Amino acid sequence: MNLQAKLIATALCLGSVSMAQAADFEDYGRVVRVQPQVEQVNRPRQECRTEYVQVQQPAQRSAGGSIVGGIAGALLGNQIGGGSGRTAATAAGAIAGAVVGDRVDNQNAQPGGVTEQAVKQCRTVDHWESRTNGYEVTYDYRGRNYTSVLPYDPGQRIRLRVSVDPIVN
């Protein structure tokens, strides 16, 4: 076979291969209906509020006067008593001195009372949100309806990739 015949045969084979393959092209279809695909999502959150409660406050007292008064009373009682009565006089002086010292030291002390205190109360509540996660699109192409789920709303028409395959028996 000569070179020219081989080239013609090769060209014919290459031409028939491309005809046997599927043909793809782009076209448009008319959108008939768009249905958003909505899901409910729970995003819990905290709700807090401040309440005021009454709290009993103890009196503000100092122990310094009792201590100093007790020591001074013990020293004074120790000077007064004699013999075995000295111990009793020291103890009585310490008790009397502590009582007097406490009264002198705390005579201007603030009395206890009721105050209000802020208390923060929090709780977790459900917070449901609607989220669109796609669109069910029904479209018409050459008299037939098709449905697909897309991540966006295509509008009034949809761009299509059309594939044509030959039927082989």
- Strands, count: 6
DSSP strand content: 35-45%
- Could you say which structural class the secondary elements and strand pairing correspond to? alpha+beta
Could you give the distance between the termini?
Answer: 34 Å
Q: In which order are the strands of the major sheet placed?
A: 5-4-1-6
Q: Give the tally of structural domains.
A: 2
> Helical stretch count?
3
Order of helices and strands: HEEHHEEEE
Helix content: 25-40%
Uncertain stretches:
none
Average pLDDT number: 81
What does the main sheet amount to? Answer: 4 strands, antiparallel
User: Which overall shape is indicated by the principal axes computed on the Cα atoms?
Assistant: rod-shaped
C-alpha Rg (nearest Å): 50 Å
In short:
This protein is α+β, with helices and mostly antiparallel strands and 169 residues long. It has helices at residues 3-20, 64-80, 85-105, and strands spanning 23-42, 45-57, 113-125, 128-141, 144-150, 157-164.
